Amino acid sequence: MSVFNALTTAVSGINAQSTAFTNLSNNISNSQTVGYKATTTAFQDFVASSLASTASSDISDSVSAVTVQHVDNQGTASVSTDQLASSISGSGLFVVSKETGATTSAIPQFSSQDYYTRNGEVYKNNEGYLVNTSGYYLDGYMADPKTGTLGTALTQLNVNNIAFRPTQTTTLTLNATVGTLPASSTNPTSTSQTYTTAPVTTYDANGEPHSVGLNWTQNSVNPYVWTVSAYDASGGGAIAANTSTVTFNTNGSIQSVTSGTGASATTVTASGATASIPITATYGSAVQNITLNLGTIGGTSGTTLAAATGTPTAKQVNPLAAGTTAGTLTMPATILGTTTGTAQTYTTVPFDTSATDTTGADAVSAVWTQAPVTGATTNPVWNLTFVNPYTGASLSDSYQVTFDPATGAAASVSDLTPNPNSPTPVPGGLSALALTVGGTAYTANLSNASLSTASTLSTDTSSLTSDSVATGTYQGIQIESDGSVMAQFDTGTQLVGKIALANFANVDGLNAVDGQAYTVTAASGNARIGTVGANGTGTLAVGYVESSTTDLTSDLSALIVAQEAYSANTKVVTTADQLLQTTIAMKQ
After folding, report:
1. CA 524, 527, 529: angle at the middle one, nearest 5?
2. What sequence ranges are listed for the domain Flagellar basal-body/hook protein C-terminal (predicted)?
3. Which pLDDT value is given to residue 563?
């Protein structure tokens, strides 16, 4: 009967309008929800006999409601009080993770399911993760804590326990009076002066510390000409043998600088030009180029010579020297450190045992390193070895020297090489240490080495300085418009990680889940994940959140229409019921 058909159609209309009511209710309820994407309702007609070959008087129609997503609709960017909030301008979505509730060693575990959202209102939780207001964890790429290099593995962004990463050294600056001028410029006589700097700490690309020292030597013929060489002051051989020449004017300013030797040498003489020398160090497999800045040609600051009666900067490190007899080396009176200090080191200036060697193959340095304090002993213990400072090659056994804490003098010397667990006493102590340099056996007398009983040493660390920033006080986290998550320090900012964004072939085909989030479906296509701007994801507005795309005016109007349509369908049901009752009464 047609009455039954009408009743069925009206019921389907009620169900369809109920769906419309639900969608409108969701939109209105989430009008203030960050990142919420409003939906609309589409209606579609079903005709039961649409395949019939002839027209029928009993066609049973019905209607169905379909919820249509509009994930691609752009919400208004609104200012947020949350400094870490970000709003996407474009079609991208934040990649987020959901916690399972389980933990391993106090570390939260996450679902393998990937989620996507436009809710960029994130906060740092008590574990250092960036979490949005719906409880989803923001994903991205973390930077290596040592190198700052951005990783390629997608993971949850964590900004807990951020340590300052020392910046790579690019420039060393010398402000020192390396010597004095001759008494007479018309009849100069050489005084064979030398000057050595205190080692300066430099940092490589991984933030690892190293030491670099400078050794200045006056020319034996022309006292206005000095040679300068850089060396690895840790004795590791990271800096190969090198020599540059600096010529001074009669007023003590720099006249010229010649870097290198032979055909590859370069000379700078132009007045006012930067007087600099290149230093090349190799740390691991990485080559690091450092510029030594001496001031300017003709300048009166930076590196200079004092007047004949002036006072030069005191040299800071001693070299070994040839002994009075062949095959012996000596060390002048040297204070290595203090009896109360810890983790102290001292490396002597490179000394070339061969007057004709220009490659550094016959050079030697004594490397002193304070051993960690162990057990109940209070006596300072230092380890000693001889190395080629330009290659790091060992030239001797390893020795252990124990000092008297009361006087600072060496109390005992043992050889560690035969058996480190049972050191062998060295007859003669520091006065009879064996080493081999360039195939020649030597005996070194280092008995003039001692420790100071003072609490500190008056070491000049101001002459040679590095442009590295070694420390910083952590102040917080900020997010930049390219998605970079930066740690803020009082000395600058450093990369911690980078936010990931995803895009889809059909973003409206995603499956909506709780918390303004979505999952992938066959209709949406696979996620194309990358950084901000990649794959057409758009840009970020930091300090903003994306408002809900609900249009209250439109939805309230649609609510009235839906209400009237729902009421009309109920009226059809009531009328159909009355008709059926009339039909039944007719048979009676």
Report:
1. 155
2. 543-585
3. 80
- Across the strands, what pairs with 92? none
> What is the rounded CA–CA span in Å between residue 38 and residue 588?
54
Residue from 198, 133, 91 nearest 535 by CA: 91
pTM metric for this prediction: 0.79
Q: What is the per-residue DSSP string for 135-184?
A: SPEEEEEEEPTTT--EEEEEEE-B-SS----PPPP-EEEE-EEEEE--S-
Distance CA 313, CA 193 (A): 12
End-to-end CA distance of the chain: 19
Give the largest Cα separation in the chain, rounded. Answer: 147
Q: What share of the chain is helix, strand, coil (3-state, %, to 5)?
A: 15, 40, 45
pLDDT tens per residue across span 62-100: 887 787 788 888 888 889 988 899 999 989 999 999 998
Task: Note the helical H segments in 219-291.
Answer: none
Percent of the chain scoring above 70 in pLDDT: 95
Where among 457, 486, 512 does a domain terminate? 457
Residues 155 and 172 in one domain: no
Burial of residue 505 (CB within 10 Å: 0-12, 13-18, 19+) is exposed
Domain boundary among 267, 292, 315: 315
Number of folded domains that form the chain:
4
Taking only the tens place, the pLDDT of each residue in 138-155 is 999 999 988 889 999 999
Looking at residue 430, its pLDDT comes to 95
Q: Which of 65-74, 383-392, 487-496 has the lowest mean pLDDT?
A: 65-74
Model confidence over 530-586: pLDDT tens digits?
A: 999 888 898 999 999 988 878 788 878 878 887 877 777 788 778 877 777 877 787
Are 224 and 240 spatial neighbours (Cβ–Cβ below 8 Å)? Answer: no
| Res. 501: pLDDT tops 90 | yes
The Cα–Cα gap between 330 and 443 comes to 9
Closest to 227 in 3D by CA, of 213, 214, 245, 241 = 245
Cα separation, 346 vs 139, in Å, equals 47
- Say yes or no to pLDDT of 58 above 90: no
Span 211-224, mean pLDDT? 94
* Sign of the four-CA dihedral 512, 514, 517, 522: negative
What domain range includes position 480? 77-163+472-546
User: Which secondary structure element, helix H or strand E, spans residue 30, and what is its range?
Assistant: none
What is the distance between the alpha carbons of residues 88 and 585, in angstroms, rounded to a whole number?
66
Taking CB atoms within 8 Å and a gap of at least 24, the contacts of 248-251 are 248/181, 248/224, 248/304, 248/305, 249/224, 249/298, 250/181, 250/185, 250/224, 251/300
The reply to whether 399 and 433 lie within a common domain is yes
Q: Do 169 and 158 lie in a common domain?
A: no
Give 12 or 461, the one with higher predicted confidence.
461
Contacts of 41 (CB under 8 A, 6+ apart): 16, 19, 20, 23, 24, 65, 66, 67, 68
Q: How far is CA 578 from the centre of its chain?
A: 78
